[in-house]
Amino acid sequence: MGFRKKSKSPPVLSHEFVIQNHADMVSCVAMIVLLGLMFEMTAKFAIMFITVQYNVTETLDTEDKPEPVSYYKYGPKDMATVFFYLLIAIILHALIQEYILDKINRRLHLSKTKHSKFNESGQLATFYSFSFIWGCSILTNEEFVTNPTFLWEGYPHIHMAFQVKFFYICQIAYWFHALPELYFQKVRKEDIPRQLYYICLYIFHITGAYVLNLHRLGLVLLVPHYLVELLFHASRLFYFNDFWIVQTVVKRPGLCLSRRFTLWALLFVITRLLTLTVSVLTFGFGLSRTDNQGFSLAEGNFNVLTVRVTCLSAICLTQAWMMWKFINFQLKKWREQSQIQASKKKAVSPKSRPSKKDSRGETFLKVIFSLVLI
């Protein structure tokens, strides 16, 4: 990990050297970009990496006097901005891992499997909480709460506020940074396909909403989804903490700790239904009935049947895949609980078992009680 002092230094530019010092090397690259601001020749290139590009100023007519308002579009230069904030995400990732998660891991003494899941949940819970608060602050300034038709009215929405564009830049940069982190964090081979699936899905959907000028819909769908994911990873963090308490303090390894996921399971299903409802409402009824129909790259208009069906199909397939994974997860937990209960029944001593006479008496009482009910 970055920022960590080692007693033995591995060979320079070896795999272990890169993994241990990747945050320091990335910090040097980011510092070179920042130093470019100090010189007039390189300042215009450095600004392209640091600041949000494609500023557009419009004048709004008010009662007193016209007021200029700044909006932003997207373009090829955004890739440079995404690259810079990808470097920042790698540095922040290493800081959280080194100064927070590793210290907690030393106290919990988890196995390698649980250690990997704890690090994953710790990083994602931090990101989801920050993104959820940021997204809610943006939505409070929008008209969605009072007027849901703002999702499709006036499409194409080529103009974005600074907060909206910077939000999407940071989202895309974070999920792209998660790809090299699979190597930097030494993720186990059996965990790589699972993490690659959801990382690529995030990149695909967020970038698609950004490029197709569907940033309003994307923001409305991301905020509740991030809330649900935050609850899941927070519940898993508490689960590992409770697991450590049960194993070391209470010393009851068979104690069930899965109740922390109940709220997450309920909100997960509700969010999937909400996502499908809003998506069908936007693509099936809203955009299909707007006046501005057509396909134009220059105007940023993608309101044609092919694009609408493709976007809606991608969302529906993703939600179906997530529900399938959710059902498998719940079945796995149910099997674990049933095995724990079965092991408890086997552990009951013969003295505590009811005798044949008692069981016959209970059967007789049950028959009498059923007859009385009839």
TrEMBL record:
InterPro entries per record? TLC-dom (IPR006634), Translocation_assoc_membrane (IPR016447)
Tell me if Iron is a UniProt keyword of this record: no
- Assigned keywords, A-Z: Membrane, Protein transport, Translocation, Transmembrane, Transmembrane helix, Transport
How does the protein's chain sit in the membrane according to the entry? Multi-pass membrane protein
The biological processes this protein is annotated with in GO are: protein insertion into ER membrane; SRP-dependent cotranslational protein targeting to membrane, translocation
- What family does this belong to? Belongs to the TRAM family.
Name by which UniProt lists this protein: Translocating chain-associated membrane protein
Q: Native species of this protein?
A: Cyprinus carpio carpio
